[in-house]
Amino acid sequence: MRRRDLLGLAPALAGAATLAGAASAKARKARFRTAICAYSFRKELKEGSLSYKDLVTMAVDQNIDGLDLTVYWFPNTGDEFLLGLKNFAYRNGVEIYSISVRTEMTRPTAEERAREVAGIKKWVDVATKLGAGHIRVFGGRVPKGATEDQAMEWAADVLARGAEYAAKRGVILGLENHGGITLRAERVIKIVKKVDSPWVGINLDTGNFREEPYRQIEMCLPYAVNAQFKTEIEYADGRREPSDWARIVKLFANAGYRGYLAIEYEAKEPALQAFPKHMRRLAELVRPYRFGA
Length: 293
What we know:
Elements (H helix, E strand, L loop, with lengths): L2 H24 L4 E7 L4 H6 L4 H10 L4 E5 L8 H13 L3 E6 L9 H21 L3 E5 L9 H20 L4 E5 L8 H11 L4 E6 L7 H8 L3 E6 L2 E3 L5 E3 L2 H10 L3 E6 L7 H16 L7
Parallel strand pairs: 1-2, 1-10, 2-3, 3-4, 4-5, 5-6, 6-7, 7-10
Antiparallel strand pairs: 8-9
Helix pairs in contact: 5-6, 6-7, 7-8
């Protein structure tokens, strides 16, 4: 083929490559892992009838892949506890992939926001010691006398500075949709886009949207870096209904989500009783996607 003919074909080849790339992106295979969110066992962890090592053993017994460790009941953050827990989890083939911490990023003063950033940095160091690549963080409430737009700017400022530190240690910050400034998907997405960092995404809680939950879940999926599955959805009017996990799993699969689905159990039946049956149900739903099938 002459060079002139080949050059004439270049635009067509480029267009074909673009279409192939778009088709490939659209056909992205989902890849799911199951996890325990430690908050499910808040009562037992708080009273000491269950330890974090017990959660590792529970994961083994129920064939669960990973742990999202809510840190509220850590006895301390010393190396003996953190590295001991990491060692125990590794030797049992369970990944501590995430920790969940308290944050209130919508602080109105620079000094308060600096303290929030310092707190995030502290927990990034803890996550690093545990081998966790993700931290669940919260935006916070809209302070009295402030507008949502102001609160969003404050939250984005804290998140961006926290992410700058987290990036140096290979830890992703997942902003949860959790009321306050993150009540609606549109606002959560806006904050994440404003920060504009590969080390920031959405920690997608499937039970926290009070209106049109399935639509808002779908909106957040392109930005999701972790997910909590709730057994119920509570609407703005106080009405509760069982969460349609089959529908939600399909949304995650269609979006090509790759990552963990952690059950965060908050319903009335005692967690130790209820959790195994819910995990069996979730495991069955995600089975086709466990290895990127």
